[in-house]
Fold this sequence. Notes:
By secondary structure, the chain is mainly α.
Amino acid sequence: MSRIRAKNQEKIIDVASQLFAEKGYAATTTAEIAQRAEIPKPNLYYYFNTKDNLYRAVLESVTLPLLEASLPIEQLDDPREALTQYIRTKLRISRDHASASKTFAAEVMAGAPHLPRDIAEALIDQSKMILNKFDYWIAQGWMDPVPAKHLMFMLWSSTQTYADFNWQICQVSGQYELEDEDFEQAAVFLVNLVLNGCGVKHAD
């Protein structure tokens, strides 16, 4: 039963992610989500109780991976390895959680009116950790003295754009959807750009 429950919850979250990304929180109804998920509406409430709980689950489906993505930066001393892992992980999140990423982006652009406080605080704590680590690497001489916050913003935007602006990227690329090869090319390019552009060295 637990496997069935997890599978049904995953399907509902996936459908809700698509609708929230397309229409926004306010314009999306639980009836629409249930209809597209092909389940009775009471079943949706059985799993999530409220629309707010479901919206939180959608946000968690992308913010939890985003929070975990920075573990190499937190745990590794070597900046080249840490940044390489971080960039590659962020791109995988954009590939695997595109709709949830768009929902999260729309929430942030609206001023985060529905973003749970604990998620917001965790994201802020993560940002502080990243900035402190960048400053440490700079102080050790393992990275050029780049403006740490702008490097962090660039890393966010350059990786998440493959989810949040997927339509535009596909239009320019003449593709219906991005392939794994596209993400691999992006990873190689962005890793080289950041490591070489910021003078990132291996830790001594």
